[in-house]
Amino acid sequence: MEAFVLAAADFAGRLGESNQPDLLWARELQALSFAVHIPLTCFGIAFPAMVLFVEGLYLRTGDPTYRALAKRWSKVMLLMFAVGVVTGTILSFELGLLWPNFMATFGDVFGLAFGLEGFSFFIEAIFIAIYVYGWDRLPPRVHLLTGVPIVIAGLTGSLFVISVNGWMNHPVGFDIAANGDIVNVRPWEALFNENFWHEYVHMYFAGTMVVGFLVAAVYARAWLRGDRSKYVRTALVVPLTVAALTAPAQVVIGDWAGRTVADLQPTKLATFEGLAETTEGAPFHFFGWYESDGQIKGGIEIPYLLSILAYHDPNATVQGLDAVAPDDRPGPVNTVRFAFQAMVGIGTLLAVLGLFYAGVYWRKRRLPRTRWFYRGLIAAGPLAVVALIAGWVTTEVGRQPWIVYEVMRVEDAVTDASGLPFAFAAVALVYLALAAAVVWLLRRLASRPPDVEVAEQVDA
After folding, report:
1. Per the structure, how many domains does the chain have?
2. Domain range holding 329?
3. Are residues 408 and 450 in the same domain?
């Protein structure tokens, strides 16, 4: 997600100075790849477990409806993985080609994480092929077990990648010699850096929310159209239950993440609010616009709230932007503020939606009946993706102007190659073609009536 948020900063009008005439294009090219790839990784994190859960229901009950649903979802899982392979390959090349100084300088530090991620990728690729091909070819319990490595590899692959991002926000595991060389590299220390833990848990729950609400949104649309079949009900309840349990928990995890940021990156925390001066009992403003004079115009001020969020103490002192030199401050401030508020606001709405569903189901043992709930559920899918992207914008733009926090600036990492606008156009065309192919394949898969697939499973 690194370059995506860098591009957001560029659009807002604060470009770093560099010898690279196409710095903006370098950032936007990497941004495009991350913006496409990040939502796909959510399916690798959360979807395999949902597929196995539904297949487990079939093994426990013998109901062919569950088997038909699991088989159809496994095809979607394979499709998302295949597209993720393409976008991930492009992304990996871009990291080396667009940011050569970053990779050359610190490759020995975080290279272990990328190497282990490669092992996870190959394990996932092997077993996802066995799982999808093994329907009707492997004994049922053996087939279910072949899906377990897919779940594990999806979790470990994301773990190693996020550890690199955590390291970029809290670089450890190396020393800098007097001549500027990186020495005494300690890759395991870099891998399990202090910033990694909250980032990984936060991303895991975010990915689960995205997949849960997106999949539920598809079947909420069918529910509104009057389809009350067991197939649709199961396909709605499973991801919705996962999302409903995850969304409220994400509020607690977000509190943990915020307090970690307050300790390790206090300037980033100040940017969340636009806190110009170090303040005891710092307030927080909802909405409003940060002005160059350090004032928030048009916002709703809640006294002491930032101190409470950061330190659980209304009288705690929060470091302001004035604690660092102007050139070392994140920016644009409003980009970070709006992204943070969008993430928190949408996350809160999703948590309320999940709690409403959980409350109705716990009290009445049925799904909500109001049509407004299902309309909200349809909107929750894309909103969860927006919250995901906003969270990464908060994290990465809030680290500016550093690509490695307080060690290397973004402008010092970029390539001096030319022709980047043409590369951007070429990659954009590839992604458009991929998007068209995915839409066509998903529509073709959805056009197959579920009852026909259930009937085929009975005959199998």
Report:
1. 2
2. 226-417
3. no
85-98 pLDDT per residue, tens = 889 888 888 888 88
Compute mean pLDDT per 10 residues along the chain, 460 residues long, and list them.
40 40 77 86 90 92 88 90 89 86 87 86 90 89 92 89 89 87 88 88 91 92 87 91 90 86 86 85 85 80 86 86 84 85 90 90 86 92 91 85 87 83 91 92 79 50
In a shared domain, residues 86 and 122: yes
Task: Name the pTM for this structure.
Answer: 0.85
Are residues 258 and 406 located together in one domain of the fold? yes
Can you give the chain as a three-state secondary structure string?
CHHHHHHHHHHCCCCCCCCCCCHHHHHHHHHHHHHHHHHHHHHHHHHHHHHHHHHHHHHHHCCHHHHHHHHHHHHHHHHHHHHHHHHHHHHHHHHHHHCHHHHHHHHHHHHHHHHHHHHHHHHHHHHHHHHHHCCCCCCHHHHHHHCHHHHHHHHHHHHHHHHHHHHHHCCCCCEECCCCCEECCCHHHHHCCCCHHHHHHHHHHHHHHHHHHHHHHHHHHHHHCCCCCHHHHHHHHHHHHHHHHHHHHHHHHHHHHHHHHHHHCHHHHHHHHCCCCCEECCCEEECCEECCCCCEECCEEECCHHHHHHHCCCCCEECCHHHCCHHHCCCCHHHHHHHHHHHHHHHHHHHHHHHHHHHHHHHHCCCCCCHHHHHHHHHHHHHHHHHHHHHHHHHHHCCCCEEECCCEEHHHCCCCCCCHHHHHHHHHHHHHHHHHHHHHHHHHHHCCCHHHHHHHHHHC
